[in-house]
């Protein structure tokens, strides 16, 4: 296991803070386990973060009663160390928890923050309590940003990023690469356009330096109270592009749509599986008497929806993004306005090749054809494995 190193970000644990944090946690039921420390020296989380970085894993999971595990290419792999004690995980929390979150963590038993480790990388962190003991999950954030081409993202996504106004959504389940794609879109704008970009994130994951554009990054809890407050303030900061890390509530969605309607490019994420579900989710944020107006606003302001899943590469070296792309055209706008009177959105996407639209299964077929992914792995993430199999047979890729 690689050796330890001191954290160097503004979120690092300060000297002498363990005593303070010990007092903050003293109401927890794990305090009795401190007597085990002399028999089992406390484990530090720092070597595990080295291991996460060196293996190219995406996540580190730390919990009591189990050895730490790394998620590598989608699978959890157990590290060869002893099972963790309550005192171990409590100590790991004190190593990384920002000083300004100590009291709130003691009260709410959960915290989200970013953590940087010199020479290792930057991580998105969630600390929590489970059955009276501490647990932590670290998500590794790649240093720097990759281009959309390097990520294997279709060209049309870059075109959506360079739209002058409107709403662009990146959707998918947790861990599907939404933040990575958004960061690459911001970098593309930053590289090619002389504009003002304001990002509102929880927490900040990818750091952007000014290129052609100016980029101001604001972190929830550190620089602003919440998404809604920051989004309102952003409208007074002369923005051209606004990135909202996640649309979580009605007021944030309302403000994001309003910003898109008034001449700004707004990019954000949703935890939805595809374009159709994304539209329904946005509409469902609002009471029934507002939903018709929301559909009208979406039909006018939406530029596109990019939905992502990850699949293992055929060579075993990492994972590949599988992408559904919906571009808002006259026909898709009609489907947003009157979903009952229009063809299903997935059919419009499937037939929208002229506008560079594609479904998940169309992208998977191309990846299988190019040898990038295997048939079995593709079927595991396909929207309709049976239809995909039929299409592959029709083009002679499988018997």
UniProtKB/TrEMBL annotation:
The family this protein is said to belong to: Belongs to the GSP E family.
From which domain of life does this come? Bacteria
Stored Gene3D superfamilies: 3.30.450.90, P-loop containing nucleotide triphosphate hydrolases
Q: Where is the Bacterial type II secretion system protein E domain?
A: 235-249
The name on file for this protein is Type IV pilus twitching motility protein PilT
Pfam families assigned to the protein according to its UniProt record, in alphabetical order: T2SSE
Task: Write one Gene Ontology MF term.
Answer: ATP binding
Disordered: where is this region?
Answer: 1-20
Q: Which NCBIfam families match?
A: pilT_fam
């Amino acid at each position: 296991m690689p050796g330890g190193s001191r954290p160097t970000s503004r979120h690092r644990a300060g000297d002498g803070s363990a005593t303070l944090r010990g007092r903050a946690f003293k109401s927890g039921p794990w305090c009795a386990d401190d007597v085990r420390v002399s028999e089992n020296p406390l484990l530090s989380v720092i070597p595990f973060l080295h291991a996460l970085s060196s293996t190219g894993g995406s996540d580190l999971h730390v919990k009591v009663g189990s050895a730490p595990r790394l998620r590598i290419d989608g699978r959890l792999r157990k590290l060869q160390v002893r099972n963790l004690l309550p005192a171990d995980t409590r100590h790991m929390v004190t190593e990384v928890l920002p000083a300004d979150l100590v009291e709130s963590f003691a009260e709410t038993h959960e915290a989200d923050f970013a953590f940087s480790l010199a020479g290792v990388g930057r991580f998105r962190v969630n600390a929590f309590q489970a059955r009276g003991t501490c647990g932590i999950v670290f998500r590794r954030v790649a240093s720097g940003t990759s281009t959309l081409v390097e990520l294997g993202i279709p060209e049309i996504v870059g075109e959506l990023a360079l739209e002058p106004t409107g709403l662009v959504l990146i959707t998918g389940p947790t861990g599907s690469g939404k933040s990575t794609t958004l960061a690459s879109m911001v970098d593309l704008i930053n590289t090619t356009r002389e504009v003002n970009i304001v990002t509102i994130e929880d927490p900040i994951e990818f750091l952007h330096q000014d290129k052609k554009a100016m980029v101001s990054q604001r972190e929830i809890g550190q620089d602003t109270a919440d998404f809604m407050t920051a989004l309102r303030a952003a409208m007074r900061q002369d923005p051209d592009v606004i990135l909202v890390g996640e649309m979580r509530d009605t007021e944030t969605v309302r403000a994001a749509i309003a910003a898109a309607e008034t001449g700004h490019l707004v990019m954000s994420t949703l935890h939805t599986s595809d374009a159709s579900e994304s539209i329904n989710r946005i509409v469902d944020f609002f009471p029934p008497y507002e939903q018709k107006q929301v559909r009208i606003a979406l039909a006018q302001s939406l530029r596109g929806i990019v939905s992502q899943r990850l699949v293992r590469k055929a060579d075993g070296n990492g994972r590949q993004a599988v992408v559904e792309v919906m571009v808002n055209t006259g026909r898709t706008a009609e489907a947003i306005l009157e979903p009952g009177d229009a063809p299903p959105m997935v059919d419009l996407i499937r037939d929208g090749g002229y506008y560079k639209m594609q479904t998940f299964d169309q992208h998977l077929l191309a990846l299988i054809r190019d040898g990038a992914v295997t048939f079995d792995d593709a079927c595991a993430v396909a929207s309709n494995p049976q239809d995909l199999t039929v299409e592959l047979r029709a083009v002679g890729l499988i018997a």
